[in-house]
Amino acid sequence: NRAERHEQAQQSSRFLRMEITLGANMLQPVEGQPNHTLFTLLTHVNPGGIAETRLGTMIMNSAAAAGPIKFIQSIRACIKRDAAAELLNKRQEEKEEQKEEDSEEDSEEEEFERLLKEQVQLETSQGRSPMLNTCPAGVT
Questions:
Q1: pTM beyond 0.70
Q2: Cα(110)–Cα(131) distance, rounded to whole angstroms?
Q3: Parallel, antiparallel, or unpaired: how do β-strands 19-30 and 33-46 relate?
């Protein structure tokens, strides 16, 4: 990780941007525990300004203790949100597949009814009693 300058984060006399000398996030699998990850956060900064005072040191120490915890909580929230979105997408796909299957079944039924009506009309036009002894689709 490293700090970048950005045109939408202009420097001003009201704020001082920290200089990040070194930053890294390392994620390593925990042997024998496939659902666990060792997370190491390394940050070396030069906060400058007020951080060089006693109050600034207290604020920086507080942020240094709380920052990584909030970062991990944010990652967990993202993972939960992504898992929920994935589950929602899967359910939506299943519903769409079911709709397609239902639609195919409906069109098969509609085709059967159409053929049945045609056979009844044909037999009626030929003066025969519309008795169906076979399937109108020709399947016996």
A1: no
A2: 20
A3: antiparallel
Residue with tokens 């359910």, as numbered in its chain: 91
Could you report the per-residue pLDDT of 17-39, keeping only the tens digit for each? 667 777 788 889 999 999 898 98
Rounded to 5 degrees, what angle do the CA atoms 21, 24, 25 make? 155
Helix (H) or strand (E) holding 97: helix 54-125
Calpha distance 139→135 (Å, rounded): 5
Answer yes or no: are the C-beta atoms of 137 and 113 closer than 8 Å: no
- d(CA 86, CA 84) in angstroms, rounded, equals 5
Enumerate the β-bridge partners of residue 77: none
Among the listed residues 24, 20, 6, the one whose alpha carbon sits nearest the alpha carbon of residue 68: 24
